[in-house]
Amino acid sequence: MQKKEWATRTKHDRADSTTRAVLLTAARRVFEHSGYARTTVARITEEAGVGRATFYVYFSSKEEVFSVLAEQVKDSFLAGQELNGIDADDPHAVAEATITAFLDAYTEHLGFITVLRHQTLSDPGMGALWEEIHALPRHRSAHYTQRLVDRGMADPAASPEAVAQAAGGMIAAFAGQLAAAPEDRDRVARELTAMYVRLLGLPRP
Q: Is residue 2 exposed (0-12), middle (13-18) or buried (19+ Cβ within 10 Å)?
């Protein structure tokens, strides 16, 4: 029993380790700079300033560390749908908050997302990972739109699923522009929100 408790505690310590966070940050920089194929464990450890043995304490391969980074992107997208401090019964406020949060998250992770999308062209596993990142946020968004329809609060331009997918596509299209001109963030967020509100078919406030 004592051995099992020790192993569980050790696993928890590794998951919360500062060294693990340093490795993830370094890996993300290398992936974004070199691309997936040219990234190696040696390059990651060099960037992090640690030895290869230290890397393998936390990760079994570059594939695993890439998957963990992808999970962070997914968590960031899901966090964009949390309505802390927002009136959930005000669809205009919800639209503005979620679009802005998604835009910020997509812009923040744009470099990594670019690497992942490039890998989907040749790697079905990466394609599945990309779909996994988007599936739950898209499903939640579609579910919310359907609730608005059921309550007679919205008349969407297409099915809730199509509206959710279109909103994600709009954000992706503008994120590259925003990464190059961050000073346009508020304007872009307003324009994206306005288009999303039209897609939802919300009445003018």
A: exposed
CA-angle at 116, arms to 54 and 47, nearest 5°: 30
Q: Are 103 and 188 in contact (CB under 8 A)?
A: yes
Each residue's pLDDT tens digit, 91-118: 999 999 999 999 999 999 999 999 999 9
Q: Taking CA 196 as the corner, what is the angle to CA 171 and CA 82, rounded to the nearest 5 degrees?
A: 75
Count the Cβ atoms, other than its own, within 10 Å of residue 10: 11
Over residues 133-145, the pLDDT tens digits come to 888 889 989 999 9
Q: Measured between alpha carbons, how far is 10 from 15 in angstroms, rounded to an integer?
A: 9
d(CA 94, CA 8): 40
Q: Which residues contact 193 (CB under 8 A, 6 or more apart)?
A: 95, 96, 99, 100
